[in-house]
Write a structure and sequence with these properties.
The protein is α/β, with parallel strands linked by helices and 355 residues long. The protein is built from 10 helices and 15 strands.
């Protein structure tokens, strides 16, 4: 389903509606089936807002239109193969794709009824960050827009409450799968789609500077941005994040300033602390110098270990001392507690191994 199209036995092609935006569904119904503009929007609302995944159950549509939809379109689904529950309420989901590949996602409960779904955008990852399990086996392929959408549908069916936030922080680099991610963001934030606020949908990147600038210039790619920085010198970042050899820190910071100017949005800076590597007072000073003048908030995270990991988790005392230096100089900085460590669902621990 890479192209969100499925071949039937009679060699006709049916369009997977979950791979289209609400506007795309309306265009498809107009162009492929001769429906009046707006009829496809009704289909999109039933699908994305009401979660109706059977054309026969869209009973407010007339029967001839429903029969047309069955001939020309389909609604795909994604199977949850395994569920793992953490003692802190986090739940890890293993999805099995039609081609046998697997990806992982995480449901993370929060205060005030918040429920965040961590979504994957690729099978594997080519970024190769040394602190992340996802890249151990490299990149297998991009996910289609429908496969990304289907993670939300499948997760909502098993979730204890309504999903309120989506973070594209699962397996893969979202900005390397730009067009599919863009379609997903539009479907997620359209009022005729899933109806999430664009502030509640966050794209996390390892630092693909040109793609950050592309996102900033693209008015149809309206989501929040988080950037994994994790070092204050190119020498250190080269070792832990290979992307830095292509887009060094100065180039990344340039892209972030462009993003801030074009969108007037605050960027979330993700900074994972590794014992004795990037957690010194000197690192905190350099971090503040790098981020000077950039509208941002800083998430300070402790490294989540995994078998064979080349780093160690810092002491909490060092973490809070690092955070406090940032606060003292006027930066917005919070220590993010790891969730789901006991089931390998914390940041950097996802790896969709076939079992």
């Amino acid at each position: 389903m890479q192209n969100d199209l499925v071949t039937m036995n009679d060699d006709k092609m049916r369009r997977d509606l979950k791979g289209l935006t609400p506007k795309g569904i309306d265009r498809f119904c107009t162009e492929a089936m001769g429906q009046k503009p707006g009829q496809g929007t009704r289909v999109a609302v039933r699908l994305f807002r009401k979660k109706v995944e059977d054309f026969d159950l869209m009973t407010d549509l007339n029967r001839p239109f429903r029969e047309q939809l069955k001939r020309h379109a389909l609604i795909s689904r994604l199977m949850i193969d395994q569920r793992s529950a953490s003692g802190d309420g986090t739940e890890k989901l293993l999805y099995r794709l039609d081609d046998g590949n697997t990806i992982e996602g995480v449901l993370i409960p929060g205060p005030g009824g918040r429920l965040t779904l961590c979504v994957s955008t690729q099978v594997g990852c080519a970024s190769g960050c040394a602190f992340c399990r996802t890249g151990e086996s490299g990149l297998t392929r991009n996910l289609s827009a429908a496969e990304i959408v289907n993670q939300v549908f499948a997760a909502q069916k098993v979730a204890a409450s309504l999903i309120t936030n989506i973070v594209l922080m699962g397996t893969g680099e979202p900005l390397s799968n730009y067009e599919a991610v863009k379609t997903f963001v539009q479907a997620a934030t359209d009022r005729h789609g899933m109806g999430f606020s664009n502030r509640k949908v966050t794209i996390s990147t390892c630092g693909l500077a040109p793609m950050i600038e592309k996102m900033a210039d693209d008015t149809e790619m309206d989501a929040s941005l988080a950037v994994s920085l994790n070092a204050t010198t190119d020498a250190v970042r080269d070792q832990i994040m290979p992307v830095n050899k292509t887009y060094p820190i100065a180039r990344l910071i340039q892209a972030l300033h462009h993003y801030g100017r074009k969108t007037n949005k605050t960027v979330t800076i993700e900074y994972v602390l590794f014992r004795g590597v990037n957690d010194s007072d000197e690192d905190a000073v350099r971090l503040m110098e790098l981020l000077k003048g950039l509208p941002c908030m800083i998430n300070v995270l402790m490294f989540n270990s995994f078998p064979g990991a080349p780093f160690e988790r810092p002491d909490e005392e060092r973490v809070y001392a690092f955070r406090n230096m940032l606060l003292k100089h006027g930066f917005v900085a919070v220590v993010r507690n790891s969730r789901g460590k006991d089931i390998n669902a914390a940041c950097g621990q996802l790896r969709a191994a076939v079992t």
